[in-house]
Design brief:
The chain is of the alpha/beta class and 215 residues long. Helices cover 39% and strands 14% of the residues. It has a domain of 149 residues: Divalent-metal-dependent TIM barrel enzymes (TIM Barrel). α5 links the parallel β5 and β6. It is globular. The relative contact order is 0.11.
């Protein structure tokens, strides 16, 4: 079954955003966990989260997608930047447990000249420290365009990250159409071929969400 939604503001709470999704006939949505440029997140309103869980169950919502702030860079050459990424990542996963069985999507980061191999190793290290067997949220690696020193520009790089993560059942992929097109995958003229390549390298069973964007 195809589930379609869009990015919505979480500023008025989970119950409100759920009703807003229903008003546009969506059965899923994406939201930022906090200001996309970073910063402290609002505390979870337990009653609001409970109202959303009831609404989502009653209306048969598909998993919703929480998007990490853009400032996360777990493979930075700056230790403080990596520490910030880990702190925000862990806090967001803790908060996501109030609306369980959903997705947390993040940009793998930029290696800033250290090399893709070093960047991949740092991302694996972060995920192996943060992912827990008891968590209900699946973390999604987003496909990237390869701008600058971005990690995740190819299916092979994402597969390498998955290979190094111990709790693989807690890790999926979000395919961003703008990013993969910019990275050189011809989804306009050869979508079936690109998806066949994705299946061969990563596995379609690990594709949990799609960002349907123009380029």
């Amino acid at each position: 079954m195809l589930h379609i939604g869009c990015h919505l503001s979480i500023s008025k709470g989970f119950a409100h955003i759920g009703k807003e999704a229903l008003s546009i006939k969506a059965d899923t949505f994406q939201f930022f966990t906090r200001n996309p440029q970073g910063g402290k997140a609002k505390e979870i309103d337990l009653a609001d989260a409970a109202r959303f869980r009831a609404l989502a169950s009653e209306n048969h919502f598909a998993p919703v997608v929480a998007h990490a702030p853009y400032t996360l860079n777990p493979c930075s050459d700056n230790p403080q930047t990596r520490e910030f990424a880990e702190m925000v990542f862990a806090d967001d996963l803790r908060r996501m447990e109030y609306i369980p069985h959903n997705y947390y999507n993040f940009h793998p980061g930029s290696h800033v000249g250290q090399g893709a191999a070093a960047g991949i190793a740092m991302i694996i290290d972060l995920l192996n420290r943060i992912l827990m067997p008891e968590q209900n949220t699946i973390v999604l690696l987003e496909t990237m365009s390869g701008k600058g020193s971005e990690v995740g520009r190819s299916f092979e790089e994402l597969a390498e990250i998955r290979a190094g993560v111990k709790l693989k059942d807690k890790l999926g992929v979000c395919l961003d159409t703008c990013h993969v097109f910019a990275a050189g995958y011809d989804i306009v003229n050869n979508l079936d071929g690109v998806m066949s390549e994705f299946d061969k390298i990563i596995g379609l069973q690990h594709l949990k969400a799609v960002h349907l964007n123009d380029s």
